């Protein structure tokens, strides 16, 4: 009886908030150090993204040549948006889906099931650690390109910077939620590599990674204003460029917060169904 009580106390203490925060923070640091030790791999991946953003920026420079801008965007604001969107699109790479899919394929997911940790928060901690190293390189690259080549706009108001950072945090959560859902699909699909590419492409296009969503027809924009994708890239990029302010700014942040919570809860529900599927199949 005493041993059972002791084990219960150990499990309860291991799930207390301070201990859990310490555990998840430690996992984020491990993921950060792992990413830092594989700098060459990340730099090669970023090299492809650099070529892409240079091509896009050069293309838009030619398209905007001789024109003051497009719609509500001046030429400088437009190019600033393109560069910031590139940076945001690079956060939360394919690693989340790949790790979950690999754990399902190898059976390591059963180890995750017996850990006294929340599977969703576990992978979120890993994603945050990786995003830190990705963010450092992306900031350096975009900063260099913006300063040397594009002469991008820099917010002069500290409140704009603050709201931008809040929006970026919400964007990371939304993008992680979508990536987590893609990874958990490995419980039902044999190979999710095609699904991963589809996810990245859809989030990039519908999120505004390649061009401002204002260039799309009004009917399409109205639909995208409801869906979560704009919250991954377009909203924080528009806050940075000053295209969103006042009441619209608060509405946009609420939009991001709503989808961050809804998708998190939906992803949790899908994970629970995946676990039940494993249990039913005798895994």
Automatic annotation (TrEMBL):
<feature type="transmembrane region" description="Helical">
    <location>
        <begin position="248"/>
        <end position="267"/>
    </location>
</feature>
<feature type="transmembrane region" description="Helical">
    <location>
        <begin position="127"/>
        <end position="150"/>
    </location>
</feature>
<feature type="transmembrane region" description="Helical">
    <location>
        <begin position="40"/>
        <end position="63"/>
    </location>
</feature>
<keyword id="KW-1133">Transmembrane helix</keyword>
<protein>
    <submittedName>
        <fullName>ABC-2 family transporter protein</fullName>
    </submittedName>
</protein>
<dbReference type="InterPro" id="IPR010390">
    <property type="entry name" value="ABC-2_transporter-like"/>
</dbReference>
<keyword id="KW-0472">Membrane</keyword>
<feature type="transmembrane region" description="Helical">
    <location>
        <begin position="78"/>
        <end position="96"/>
    </location>
</feature>
<dbReference type="Pfam" id="PF06182">
    <property type="entry name" value="ABC2_membrane_6"/>
</dbReference>
<feature type="transmembrane region" description="Helical">
    <location>
        <begin position="162"/>
        <end position="189"/>
    </location>
</feature>
<feature type="transmembrane region" description="Helical">
    <location>
        <begin position="196"/>
        <end position="213"/>
    </location>
</feature>
<keyword id="KW-0812">Transmembrane</keyword>
